[in-house]
Predict the structure.
Amino acid sequence: MKHLSRAELVDFIEASPHMPAARARHASTCSECRAEADALRSILALATTDDVPEPSPLFWDHFPARVADAVRDEVPGRSSDAPAGMRWLRAPVMTWAVAATMSLLVIITVVWRTTLHAPAPVMVPATGAPAAANATGAPVAGTASSDESDVDTDEAWAVVRAAAQDLRWEEAHAAGLSAPPGAAEGLALELTADERSELARLLDEELKPNGA
Amino acid sequence: MSVTRDRTDAARPAVPGLDLEASVDDRTLVDACRAGRRDAFDVIVQRHQRQVYQLCYRFVGNHEDASDLAQDVFIRAYRGLHSFKGNSAFSTWLYRVAVNVCLNRVASHAPRLAAFDLADRPDPRVERADTRLLRGERAAEVRAAIARLPRKQRAALILRVYHELPHEAIAEIVGSSVGAVKANFFHALANLRKLLRAQP
């Protein structure tokens, strides 16, 4: 037969009426269960002998007065720590931590969207002609120069440019900001033929000595 | 503080004319307290202070902390009287407040157990000095071992052994099942045995 469970052992040492007769019979015949029960009984007897020292009789006389003094200015059944509308302020630390994290995330998102990821400002053309041409669906002359101008005047890009102005390659590399090995090759393979030729042209221009 | 139904659920006397000197049941005192009779709470304190103090002492092991903790229990009970719905005995509800306060306390403070004091021990005129000494030392060891038990095991042991509450009442107080309380009680005794055996 199965040995007594923990709850059954507790019932057995306490002679509980909830103990089924069959289990009690097992406990009285099983040496393992009896040994376990005897050990628990002995430790229970040892613990039971310890009494709480009785304080001075004066303590009991003064204690209600101490409590009465402590709650004198309070309304029963209502905490005086904070007014009813302010009880949320006593929320546990975790609630505050979550609230602070959420606030921080919202602030970061707002700053991110309003600075770095803001849409480029719309450039007003010098004359109304291109706009009019655009309205008719015709290609706009001078779009490339307009894009360059956008980059120059884009505040978000200005932030990046200012941050990167004094950055040296060695510093960026040391800070782990450099591209991983093979990244440039991978990127070049993803370009279309036109994009690759344009890239080659730009690199040529950049690498040519001035005035060449 | 017995965990039984309060003395009566019958019609209660009108609160303003309540005679607090009479043997008024706890619920009537709570109603009177809620109605503004501050002296009704004094009666509650007088009625339950000994049990609350003893419970606190079992958790912290010294008089100073136990008296502060017992005061804290009654202050919290006073503030939380609105949450006493009367579904269980007031004493059960007060035990729940007390156990929560004690468990929070022991979670944040290491117990400062009172030094073994012969004056705390039973009547010296009827007990030999060496027997007394051994008894006192053993009691101090038991207290120290109980203080090292995990919180739930300690609560189950204290409420069962020293307050003689039934497992069902303990389950209601600590907010768990009767089976869980019995398991905690079993583990408390088993761990106590290990701790005491391990002592030099």
Summary: DSSP finds eleven helices and no strands in chain A. Chain A has a mean pLDDT of 73.
